[in-house]
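Ticket 4471: requesting a sanity check on a complex prediction with 6-O-phosphono-beta-D-fructofuranose. Repro inputs:
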Amino acid sequence: MTKKIGILTGGGDCPGLNPAIRGCVYTASKLGYECVGFLDGWKGIIENKTMPLGIRRVRDIISLGGTCLGTSRTHPYKKEGGVESVRRNFANLGLSALVAMGGEDTLGVASRLYKDFRFPVVGVPKTMDNDLSGTDYTFGFDTSTTVAVDALSRLKDTAASHHRVIVLEVMGRHAGWVALFTAICGGADYVCLPERPVDDEDLTKKIAAAHAEKGYALVVTSEAAEFASAKAGQAQERDDFGHVILKSRGVGETLAGLIEEKTGLETRHAVIGHIQRGGSPTLFDRMLGTRVGASAAKFAAEGKFGVMAALRGTEIVPVPLEVATGQLKTVPKEWLELADTML
Ligand code: F6P
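Returned structure tokens:
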């Protein structure tokens, strides 16, 4: 009987997932395994919705954004009978391993399944937020932050022409990596991160000075930044994993209002939102996706379960899922110091 590996992609999509699926399918095939794809993350394995994943299906997906398997934020432990369905459908399909591609939520479920049942699962780290521990980078981050840098450079043209201040709000949930890299590499004048509350005085003083010098100023803010004084809307809607849905907080808008009020400078804001998550993966994300996908298939064939294929330096190594999902990787002091020097 042919040995089979199941693959699913869960949580927010990001560029690099298709290269990772492709890397996994090619390697599995070389090792004598067939691959089966589950549709829409954990939902697909709960509902037994599958698609065959042969070489022909994945050959041409290297340059495509999103995920050809679809995704969702379904949490099997939050659905009645969800975990039992996962285990039953996995067994009925005659699978010997599951490769789960996702961020802290999807891999958190994988880690729990491994802990509770020694479920034969291998994780692949993905998230545009780059906030997963145990790995140096996650694919999706490079592409989505490159898109944000491009957006900032477009905003610079219009800000300079109108002598305005423009605030760009970027995604990244509760870690400021996307905002930090966008601000430094896009040449912004100020960055607001969830890792430290925004100091209104400092912000307005620096923005006024940058504007006086150049005739315009650019601010990058994370969607999750907090302010000492002005309060951005308190978004309360939560997803299956208990995360507040940040899209309606209006951080960029609040910040623009605050700057205009305190400096008297004409200020606009732009929210890049999901535009950041789409599009063709960069070279870096294509290669990282390919490598972690391929390693996950290898780990599965070797019976190395309960681990994630992580990038450490230039190597891909197995890291326990428990370590990867134990704590969110937020921006540390050294990076904040670099931002303070460069901005
Ligand atoms: O976790 C990835 C991410 O893109 C976050 O940066 C963002 O807050 C969230 O997903 C948006 O989620 P959704 O696509 O469900 O609106």
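Notes from triage: The pocket of 6-O-phosphono-beta-D-fructofuranose is lined by residues 12, 103, 127-129, 171-173, 223, 246-247, 277 (CB under 6 Å). Leaving this open until the requester confirms.
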